[in-house]
Amino acid sequence: MTVDQATRLRQLVTTTAKRARVIAVTSGKGGVGKSSIALNLAVVAAGHFGRTVLLDADLGLANLDVMCGVTVRGGLAEVVAGKKRLNEIIVKTPYKVDLVPGASGIAYVADLPDEDRGRLMEQMDLLERHADLVVVDTGAGVTRNVVRTAAAADEIFVVATPEPTSITDAYATIKLISRCNEYGTLKVIINQADSRREGDRVADRIAAVSKKFLGANVTPGGCIFADPKVARAVRLRKPLVTAFPASPAALGIAAIARGLNGADGACRDGAFMGRLKKLFGGKK
């Protein structure tokens, strides 16, 4: 073990009294900008929350390392297998955010053998003690793994675009999360909006339908404008908020990050990993 790894492990072990605030960014379908929003939200938030960790929880198609231009030394698959500890795979990015790389191709957490799942959750518990803020980029879709991971967070941002199919998928995501016994504060982010008016209209529609038919309280989490600079930043392998900080989409994400300091941002009772264990301990 290197000196740097040993130092980081001591940090993980000694910060036992605190718990990070956990924000999950999720979506009912792919292609709506979920991972880009999670990355950029973490980068902006790092300036306000102290130690910020970005967790690539997409266990099927992890790609945040590519989006922020870093080289990884392994991923959650090695942690699950017991080959590495979490502190050995964490990557420091140039943006004051620690990245926990995902694990493309491994089984869903719910389908892992008990020993492997326990090993992963034990390491993730250490992560929660290490950080001040954890931003979780869940997989896309409405699988059991995605829904329960999102539900365990303190705050859940459901990302949708103004397209009818995306709105329908966002509602389906909210429906499944609301069926969990407990879940965090639900917010909806409208991405790729043509105008503030359009974004507000779509967010209000989702909130109204969720309240009427699900009894779920969903609040608007912010609006991000359609912006060609988003694709350019991805090609540059840099966060949008650092590559093009004055672009319309970057300003929208910065506004969402500033809102994280609001009164509704208090952590829920208990720990994220404790809630996650309960959710995955139930029957399918």
Topology (elements, then pairings):
Layout: H1 3-14, E1 21-27, H2 34-49, E2 52-57, H3 64-67, H4 76-80, H5 86-89, E3 91-92, E4 97-100, H6 114-130, E5 133-140, H7 144-151, E6 155-160, H8 164-178, E7 185-193, H9 196-214, E8 218-225, H10 229-236, H11 240-243, H12 248-259, H13 272-281
Parallel strand pairs: 1-5, 1-6, 2-4, 2-5, 6-7, 7-8
Antiparallel strand pairs: 3-4
Outline of this structure?
The protein has 284 residues and is of the alpha/beta class. 47% of the residues lie in helices and 18% in strands.
Number of domains: 1
Q: In what order do the strands lie side by side in the largest sheet? A: 3-4-2-5-1-6-7-8
Distance between the termini: 40 Å
Helix content: 40-55%
Taken as a percent bin, the fraction of beta residues is 15-25%
Number of helical runs? 13
Residue stretches low in confidence (pLDDT < 50, at least 5 long) are 12-16
**CATH architectural group:** 3-Layer(aba) Sandwich
Order of helices and strands: HEHEHHHEEHEHEHEHEHHHH
What do we call the CATH topology?
Rossmann fold
Radius of gyration: 18 Å
Sum up the overall morphology in one term: globular
The level-1 CATH class: Alpha Beta
Secondary structure category: alpha/beta
Description of the molecule:
- By secondary structure, this protein is of the alpha/beta class.
- The chain is globular, with a radius of gyration of 18 Å.
- α6 packs antiparallel against α13 and α7 packs across α8.
- It has a single domain, classed as Rossmann fold.
- An eight-stranded mixed beta sheet has the order 3-4-2-5-1-6-7-8, with helices on both faces.
- It has 13 helices and eight strands.
- About 2% of the residues have low confidence.
